[in-house]
Design brief:
By secondary structure, the protein is mainly α. The protein contains 16 helices and two strands. The protein has a two-stranded parallel sheet with strand order 1-2. The longest helix is centred in the middle third of the chain and has 29 residues. The radius of gyration is 23 Å and the shape is globular.
Amino acid sequence: MTTATLSQPLSKPLSPTELQSFGDEIDALRARTVADIGDRDARYIRRVVKGVRYMEAAGRALLFIGIFPPAWILGTLLLGLAKILENMELAHNVMHGQYDWMNDPTLDGKTYEWDIVGTSDNWRKTHNFKHHTYTNVRGMDDDIGYGLLRIFPEQRWRPFFLAQPFIAVIFALLFEWGVAIQDLRLGRWFAGKMKPGELGAAFKPVGKKMRRQVIKDYVIFPLLAGPFFLPVLLGNIVANLMRNVWTFSIIFCGHFTADAETFPKSVLKNESRAHWYLRQVRGSSNLRGGRLLNLMSGNLSHQIEHHLFPDLPANRYAELAPEVQAICARYGVHYNTGSFWQQYGQVLWRILRHAFPSKPAPDAPLVQPPQLDDDEALSLSRQG
């Protein structure tokens, strides 16, 4: 349960008229941005591509002389930063189709393959479709706790969750592996609801990608270093751990802070685009931190704007944020933002608190119930 539902809701429920106007304003903002997309955005993403390549090349070169501690430290840092940038600002955003308009086959959202053990195809299914369509809807969005963690009290408590403070640490360190197996539905297999043959077929492309990544980072590059095999191997391990922990932190800060809300499946009934916009805002959290944080988070420091406009170039989110915040203020919709450490502290508290049994409160409504005129009220009372 969120802070919003413990006492007074942070966002007031909108009337049907307000909801429509809210959606219209978000639509208009999107249309103005789409009309302005062009060379500036193309230059930006190509600079990101070059930055990833140069940092990775420099990092790997330094690791090849990693017997010297300063070279190993700098090489590992550069490689880790390259992997973060590729994962967050390049791959994630490209796979959302943000740059499909460029008609560049290397930036095609439908074919881009990223530098982690999970397949892009599985990510496009679990993230682009399921998560962005059913954001924070309980029973529909598998990203709520990723099947491992109880983040909200609406999730059913089991004794297993007592271990989640320790599980969360392991999950952060191995986050890319968790993402890789998310779509395998292992819970169904453990419960006997999936045949081994079905699991094997689903695992085949995942296993192939895992094997390729492991061979690249932990066999080929260390072997190329010859006598410096071990420093290069260790550097690759640490760089991947850096990327995993950072990605985990940014994603969790964007979804599981104190003011982020979850929703029952009933909100999907006859859900309009304006309803969807409202749900995205109330289920998301932003981070304040400046241009460097924006870049290294893939602009997911503006998670609200990303959830509203997942297919717009992410470098636009910082410009859109003040306008989105102003629209929210006009309609009394809470715009959840805070510093990285403030939001991260709230995430850690959720992980610790909801490891233990906790009682949910009623869901805060998104929309005001329709108001009946006197004749309708009299008619209903007679029927009753």
